[in-house]
Amino acid sequence: MVRERHRRDDLYIAVPSFFRCPISLDVMTSPVSLCTGVTYDRASIQRWLDGGNNTCPATMQVLHSREFVPNLTLQRLIRIWSDSARGPPAPAASTAAAAAAAAEQPPTPPPHPDSPLSRDRALAAARAVATGAGGGGSAAEAASSLPGILRFAGESEENCDLLAGIEGFPGALLRMLDFDGDESERRVRSLEVWLEERGSFASAVVKSDRRRVDSILMVIERGRSESKVAAVRVLESAAVDAETKLAMAECEQLLLRLLNLVAPATDPRAARGEPLRAKTRLVALRSIRRLGQLLASPGATVPVTEKALKLLEVASSVKEGRAALCGDAACLGAVLQKVFKVSGAATEHAVATLWSVCCLFGDQRAREVVAECNGVAKMLLLMQSNCPVPVRQMAGDLLRTCKVSSSRPPCLSSYDTKTTHIMPF
After folding, report:
1. Residue 237: closest CA among 210, 206, 213
2. Listed residues 261, 294, 311: the one ending a domain
């Protein structure tokens, strides 16, 4: 009777509502918070997002970010509550009764595959990956332990540092990229967790053989948006010095696939992480036209616009780039339209690009395009704004060169640029 009463008491333990996951209604084992502020169990919300949903299940708000923030405070409270809910063990009447009660208890189930790993288990699994990912059955075992290691790494920056310090772990992750399809995408996303600002992982990417780099390129070409973003960030983090950047710039397939991401229909996060540096190759791959289309797209975000203008500024610093810009009137017009109403950085990049083709290169076609697109008035307004001195100087140079090239009546022919004060009458 005592045992049955205890069993009935266990059935009626009151669980605080904020300890339950809003999706599964079970007690959360690894609570994480979304950008909306609602906390879910990591496994449940991950399945929700993997199913193609882009909203918060509780509030139905559109998620501007799919990143999780581990709620360690709530996890600690759940652990304390769980320990206290068990209560002190009931005194057994005799050793035989205790043995019989233990025999009637169901066996302890194994840990759920989605449950977070403890520190010791996660580090042991990571060491197993580092030593056993060479091939055969060991590779399969290492691959099966990867999701748990990823969840452990996502809990805190300290966990990432612990995993990054395991010798051979970066190379093991790269060796596991010898997969196709979804497996390659999953492993590239796992690399993204640790690669950024960790030199050992960047060195491992650079020193890895061609097959692993090809796997990353394949994800950039055929993967989903999240995987493409992760792959670009992996390459961006690997470009830690001039030698590495030069090696990447010499890979034409890499440049071409990265350039294919810069299109209006591409996920803007991918364009935001693009690490292009090669100037002449950039022009040879016909990037000027694509960047112009990106600037003209009404859906281009501020970071993407800034990155596109920066690439055009880089291209305008070489002769081939300036020639390509001067031959694309639509691109020049799009650059001129981005002088205002984007950001200070976008203004600087746009003015520097126009100054290169109109003043430094002195192309008459570019001057005519700027003049016909109301560039004189824009430069006048820019000189009256609170812009940096170098930008104001370049705007003055553009004003002097473009007002002469204007085919319109010379209403500003007597304007003197020694002063930037314009009277309203």
Report:
1. 206
2. 261
CATH code, 301: 1.25.10.10
Q: Which residues pair with 39 in a beta bridge?
A: 33
pLDDT at 335: 87
What pLDDT score was predicted for residue 260?
59
Structure tokens at 299: 């859906």
Burial 67-95 (b: 16+ CB within 10 A, else e): ebebbeebbeebeeeeeeeeeeeeeeeee
Per-residue model confidence (pLDDT) at position 328:
81
Flag whether 270 is in a domain. no
Assess whether 256 and 134 both reside in one domain.
yes
pTM across the whole model: 0.41
Q: What is the pLDDT of residues 230-273, one digit of tens each?
A: 666 666 666 555 666 666 655 656 655 665 555 444 444 444 44
* Same domain assignment for residues 70 and 127: no
Better pLDDT: 69 or 157? 69
In 3D space, the residue among 335, 345, 413 whose CA is nearest the CA of residue 369 turns out to be 335
Q: Number of structural domains, the chain?
A: 3
Which residue, 252, 136, 240, 156, is CA-closest to 198?
A: 240
Within-domain flag for 315:
yes
Q: Given this model, what pLDDT does residue 233 score?
A: 66
Tell me what the mean pLDDT of segment 116-128 comes to.
78
**DSSP character string of 274-338:** -----HHHHHHTTHHHHHHHHHH-TT--HHHHHHHHHHHHHHTTSHHHHHHHHT-HHHHHHHHHT
- Structural domain boundaries, residue 51: 2-82
